[in-house]
Amino acid sequence: MQVKSLLAILATVRLAASYGWSVIDINNGEWSETIERDVCIVGGGASGVHAAVSLIDLNKTVVVVERNDYLGGGTHTYVDPETLATVDIGVVVFQPIPVVFEFFNKLKVALLNMSSVEVNKAGQPANLSLPAAMFNTIRQDADFRDGSEVTRSLPLEEAEADAFRRLAEVYSNYSYLLYGYDLPDPVPEDLYMPFGAFLEKYNLTAAFPTIYQISQGMGDLLQVSTIYAIKYFNLDDLRYSSQGYFTQAHGNNSELYTRAGAYIGASNTLLQSTVISANRKNTTSGRLELLVSTRAEGLKLLSCKQILLTIPPTLTNLRGWDLTAEECAVFSQYITANGYWTGLVKNVGLNETVAIFNSAAHTPFNIPVLPALYHLSPVGVIDDVWWIKFAADNPTMSDAQVKSYAERQIETMQRARNATITKPEWLIFESHTPFHLQVAPEVIKNGFFRDLTALQGGLGGKMFYSGAAFHTQYSTLLWRFNHDVVIPKMMAPV
Ligand SMILES: *[C@@H]1O[C@H](CO)[C@@H](O)[C@H](O)[C@H]1NC(C)=O
Ligand SMILES: *[C@@H]1O[C@H](CO)[C@@H](O)[C@H](O)[C@H]1NC(C)=O
Ligand SMILES: *[C@@H]1O[C@H](CO)[C@@H](O)[C@H](O)[C@H]1NC(C)=O
Ligand SMILES: *[C@@H]1O[C@H](CO)[C@@H](O)[C@H](O)[C@H]1NC(C)=O
Ligand SMILES: *[C@@H]1O[C@H](CO)[C@@H](O)[C@H](O)[C@H]1NC(C)=O
Ligand SMILES: *[C@@H]1O[C@H](CO)[C@@H](O)[C@H](O)[C@H]1NC(C)=O
Ligand SMILES: *[C@@H]1O[C@H](CO)[C@@H](O)[C@H](O)[C@H]1NC(C)=O
Ligand SMILES: *[C@@H]1O[C@H](CO)[C@@H](O)[C@H](O)[C@H]1NC(C)=O
Ligand SMILES: *[C@@H]1O[C@H](CO)[C@@H](O)[C@H](O)[C@H]1NC(C)=O
Questions:
Q1: CB atoms within 10 A of CB 2
Q2: What is the pTM (predicted TM-score) of this model?
Q3: Per-residue pLDDT for 3 more than 70?
Q4: Residues lining ligand 7, CB < 6 A?
Q5: Where is the signal peptide (predicted)?
Q6: CB 364: neighbour CB atoms within 10 A?
């Protein structure tokens, strides 16, 4: 965000506060409906939907406000209209932890242990009864800027295995990061040093190439503060990778959210809706009020005992909210986020036995130069359809720019491999941007996460927060955070 627009927002927030002015007051009660619920949940992604289901089971009434026309946030499944083959392009895998089995079982969605089945041999056709995510290819490396082949310098296998063993030991000192951001005071220096420096400090650089490959969407992983890297590819990944990850049995993770939507109920779900004004501090009813612009029914007033906010808490997203001084102080610290986009394209015409990874010859660890595609990989279950995962170190590129840049890189690879130059057709394209909101290292050092965590239960036990900014960009861990941390706090007597 530019400094100028930040200042403008701060000024608006102050104005609203000092004059007690809000849309709610001047609109004089003229909205189509007032919806009273125990809990208003803002954001229908992994955190918001899981919380809604959990709260219903605790006999709370809820309403979910979601800006998209579907629930599930970063979970997107492409369904091939001809064969009905499905391809998950957003959230793909889940760790084998109890909250995952509980959530899927409750909604009667079948899971598959990805370690329990045989995948195809590279070069052999995909097994169409397995999720697309399990299609196996040969990895080749090339620099997508010019298409040249790259030989990565990789650690020896034993050195890598040794580094991962020691990584688990070091990470176990930070096991509290599996449950939010409740950090010790003072904050350990390890957590705000650049991740590259942290790996060098503990002689763990042999683990980096694999960590980089898994930590998609983390931008320049060598430079991000270590705390973010530890939370994304985390201690549980190290613990559970040997036990197998899980995915929806037919590679259709969206099914979880379709079922969850039915469980929550259409009358409790406002899709394509956004909060345009909040009055949480000064209502005659004493309840919290959110004025919501809905898809087809104009403005609705939500009146709740508690609010759970799960969207990225940027000042831009919270325009119209009566932010407290504490909220403002925390949310105004975000200086950047990464860019991350996913999709599928058809008609690439390259060899479908091979996944080409973007690597650079002269960068540390051969990491690709962003913004760029991470790789170009065939999905296997639909002919000549390819995953597109595009990353940037910041969120500034528009969706149209990303698409055109991705097409250009595909063309570069086609030329380098003497393939026919085609015009790829986009089957699906989704933005996960802004991905991973970040603050500066010195802000972490000075207690940013203490202040963030202290917001829970604000406004006299009425205001709660979940979602990536309050924990991590990882569905499984967000569900456990809801289950173990946020919902118990919401249920505790004030
Ligand atoms: C609370 O709301 C009332 C009525 O809308 C208004 O007159 C009053 O100034 C508000 N108080 C504060 C502290 O904003
Ligand atoms: C929810 O309500 C049902 C039916 O009244 C009751 O059996 C159950 O114990 C309640 N659950 C909780 C967690 O309060
Ligand atoms: C998943 O399958 C693997 C291989 O069969 C097995 O070792 C592992 O225990 C399974 N995981 C779970 C959580 O059942
Ligand atoms: C495809 O996968 C299914 C499920 O794991 C398995 O039962 C079947 O034997 C596999 N088919 C082939 C041809 O490998
Ligand atoms: C550093 O790690 C490598 C393996 O990653 C190991 O072979 C080497 O002995 C370690 N060096 C020290 C000083 O611990
Ligand atoms: C974990 O922290 C303790 C206390 O700070 C320290 O002595 C120990 O060396 C750390 N362990 C690892 C593996 O870094
Ligand atoms: C995948 O899940 C979606 C959402 O529940 C559903 O509409 C679709 O029919 C499913 N497709 C297949 C092939 O299972
Ligand atoms: C595709 O790539 C594989 C692996 O390099 C190779 O064995 C195969 O011959 C290639 N196929 C074609 C049609 O070039
Ligand atoms: C592409 O064609 C050029 C010129 O015919 C040839 O030199 C080059 O080796 C070919 N590259 C590949 C990857 O086949």
A1: 7
A2: 0.93
A3: no
A4: 77, 79, 84, 86, 250, 252, 254-255, 258
A5: 1-18
A6: 10
